[in-house]
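Changelog entry: the Nicotinate phosphoribosyltransferase record was regenerated in this release. Current contents:
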Amino acid sequence: MAMSEELLTDLYEFSMANGYYATLPHDQEAVFDVFYRNVPDNGSFVIAAGLAQVVEALQNFHFTDDDISYLRSLNLFSTGFLDYLANLKFSCTVRAIPEGTPVFPREPMLTVKGPLLQCQLLETFVLNILNHQSLIATKSRRICAAAEGRAVMEFGARRAQGPDASVFGARAAVIGGCTSTSNCLAAKKFGLQAAGTMAHSWIESYPDELTAFRAWAQVYPDSASLLVDTYDVLKSGVPNAIKVFRELRAAGHEPIGIRIDSGDLTQLATKARQMLDEAGFENAKITASNALDETVIQALLKEGAPLDNFGIGEKLITSSTSPVLSGVYKMAALKVDGQWQPKIKLSNSREKVTLPGDKMVYRLYRKDTPDQAFADVIALADEKLPEKLLAINADPLATDDEIELTDFVAKPLQLEVVGANASSIETDVMKLQASMKDQLAQLPKATQRLINPDVYQVYLTPKLFELQQRLIKEHHQKAQA
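Regenerated structure tokens:
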């Protein structure tokens, strides 16, 4: 049964839109930003992902007759509002930071501008997609960094929280660095490399392990990777694999390797490597699986485990150590009587005070090292960065407030992806992965550490900072009046 993505929205979004319809001009415009405040797993950045799905949905955004019938059955909305939805012509523009880009806290990764009613209805849907896929891409980046260039295969479909999460999670995992996925639907849909070997049930389906390995080699002589921990890795699994590998080589085929899915991976892999090498199979790969993540992988490699590949399931596809990216969707400006008014959300928590106005994010590079970024700047969309910029730290809890920036080149990160001037976006997942790797190479290495990463500075322009402070002051004065 096909799901109407237009109804993938919290009820209060429709309730607010119905209220807007009743009390405000129907063409009143607004600007909303998507951003996040806290990085999962105490990292320093998030890898943007999910934009392609958002754009695809918004290009055909409409409500079906069945959608309208359901909304009417709730007895909450006016006939006029339901007619508006039935005849809605989506007219918002969307700017966004491309997928695969490292994004830092408080930076608008997506901005929606258009009729307030339409902007409001997008909140849940857009956050659902961007939060999930960016979370998984970020976790994948961490795991792949820990693997230090070794192949990482995404194996998480059976542990994902539903079919949609498994398919789009696999896509995000490859954007974040994984080489392949076991998920055939994701591989087909997004042109990914499908990967996988066998389960223990294959071995258990034959009279003994050696017979099972021989049967597999008969069917897949040029891609024989054998799971060796069904019974005993060192006493039967590896010795039987070596027997079959010898038979394959004698028949003109070269085996792929073995996979270990349980036990002390360092000790087992070390002994298995020795056994394979002594038998003349120095090129046979050893793949490890079994509830791995970046912390476990780092520990294994630090211990010297001779592992060549990793299969990562539940801890990647659910980002289990930090399972939520709390991206938010906040109003930044509202057009009233033809004039744009910046909007701000205040809070007793300084880190929750929003940045007002329509904005643009820039990545800064030194003129003498144009391939090395050193900071980002959030500016108002209509301002031009001066050659000398007295920048204000965007972190509301920072102790170093201001810095003068000179001799830099500023590259805008957002581009229009929905609207009259929309640029085409990259959808090839492997190209997005390559772009992600290129952009990571432009960031200071210290900011990419998995533990205690250095802070990458994000600044505000004086004009944006002064606007924020003015609005804060005005609100406080109104509250005291």
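The two ends are 56 Å apart (CA to CA).
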